[in-house]
Design a protein that fits this description.
alpha/beta, 6-stranded parallel sheet, Rossmann fold, globular
């Protein structure tokens, strides 16, 4: 889609640019830059209070180092701003200090980059607490999760502020049917588009020479059932995973990603002594297709709770793009794609039967899976979003 004049975009993220799990925020920034927008990517303001542990302390140290520097160019057309704010400071005096610090940080970055009449593209439901959104020519809220349902979040505060934000912005985009149902009454304009994938990136998995898999994966016997993402107890069904590993000792369950992401701690003791569960830790985004190449199946063993009811797991289309068959918990957002995956209740027998069928090669073939994956890319979704903005005469 061509535009004669492309405005600058301030993208207010809830994730740091170099987080090992790339999400909508980084991908949308890249997609906007790819079609000619200039993007100032504002890193996470910290929706929850800091925990006195290594990971949070390391993030604080990095933020202190980067917050004193001008915005850094990370890709053509994308600059990252790392504002010095107090994490979780959304009330009282700390909020006033954070508003001032953020205004100075973003203002200085916009001046340095000569951003004028910019759009605001925000993922932060507390945006109105931190920014004067009237300073922006167009205001977009992209709701991709029910953040208030994560552990440690101020649920009522986020609920109230998100509703206010929906009422004030020009356009709301959501990524799941439940988010659409919850936010539609408060939005002037709302469009539902599911999460998508970097199809070209993950499709590289199908070209990987299987004799040159990552060494830590190659030493694990087949069949390998793989998961890539945050290993957190508010998302994954740990008892289900343990039961399946115990019931199928020859199946190897491989987990790639950080542990306890989005919560204070994750208790993995249920997996103790299960030698066929392998937690390899996070891997750089560019290496993920190489790991997918060594999986016989991608899976999403999710709990059913208020958080997962509102989510659309990004890994669904990433697995499909990598050519993998998928077994997943039956959540509402995935129902429309049941023809290309095994969707089942989070019960041992249901998952066991689905995984057995998957490993036998039953079900939809690779051609069918890839055909759906090719329809759900960041490029295609952004084009639909921009068309919607134009249709609504917002641009």
């Amino acid at each position: 889609m061509e535009y004669h004049t492309k405005p600058d975009v301030v993208l207010l993220s809830t994730a740091d640019w170099d987080h090992p799990l790339w999400t909508n925020k980084q991908h949308v920034a890249c997609s906007l830059a790819a079609v000619g927008f200039r993007v100032l990517y504002v890193e996470s303001l910290g929706l929850r209070s800091v925990q006195a542990k290594g990971r949070d302390l390391l993030r604080i140290f990095r933020r202190l180092c980067r917050g004193l520097l001008p915005p850094r160019a990370v890709r053509p057309g994308i600059w990252v701003c790392s504002p010095l704010v107090v994490p979780g400071g959304s009330e009282g005096l700390i909020l006033k200090i954070n508003r001032l610090l953020l205004a100075v940080s973003i203002g200085a970055a916009k001046a340095r980059l000569n951003f004028q009449h910019a759009w605001l593209w925000t993922y932060n439901p507390l945006t109105l607490r931190y920014l004067n959104v009237q300073d922006y020519r167009l205001r977009i809220y992209h709701a991709v999760d029910a953040l208030q349902e994560q552990p440690g979040m101020q649920r009522q505060l986020i609920d109230n502020e998100e509703r206010r934000l929906c009422e004030l912005v020009d356009q709301v985009f959501v990524t799941s049917p439940q988010l659409e149902l919850r936010l539609l009454p408060f939005a002037k304009r709302l469009r539902y588009d599911p999460n998508v994938a970097d199809q070209m990136h993950f499709s590289a998995a199908m070209e990987v020479d299987l004799t040159s898999l990552p060494s830590d994966l190659a030493q694990i016997k087949e069949p390998r059932i793989g998961f890539i993402g945050a290993i957190s107890s508010y998302k994954l069904d740990f008892p289900l995973i343990a039961a399946l590993a115990l019931h199928h000792p020859k199946w190897q369950f491989v987990f790639i990603g950080p542990t306890a992401e989005g919560e204070a701690s994750t208790d993995l003791r249920l997996w103790d002594g299960l030698s066929n569960i392998h937690c390899l830790g996070p891997r750089q985004y560019r290496h993920l297709p190489n790991y997918c190449a060594g999986f016989q199946c991608g899976w999403l063993p999710l709990q059913k709770n208020k958080y997962t009811a509102s989510m659309f797991p990004m890994k669904f289309f990433e697995y499909l793009s990598a050519g993998l068959p998928i077994v997943a918990t039956r959540i509402e957002a995935l129902e429309e794609f049941a023809a290309v995956a095994w969707l089942c209740e989070p019960q041992k027998n249901d998952f066991s039967k689905a995984l057995q069928s998957c490993l036998r090669g039953d079900g939809p073939n690779r051609y069918q899976r890839l055909a759906i994956a090719k329809e759900h890319t960041y490029t295609a979704r952004l084009d639909r979003m921009l068309h919607e903005l134009k249709r609504q005469e917002l641009i």
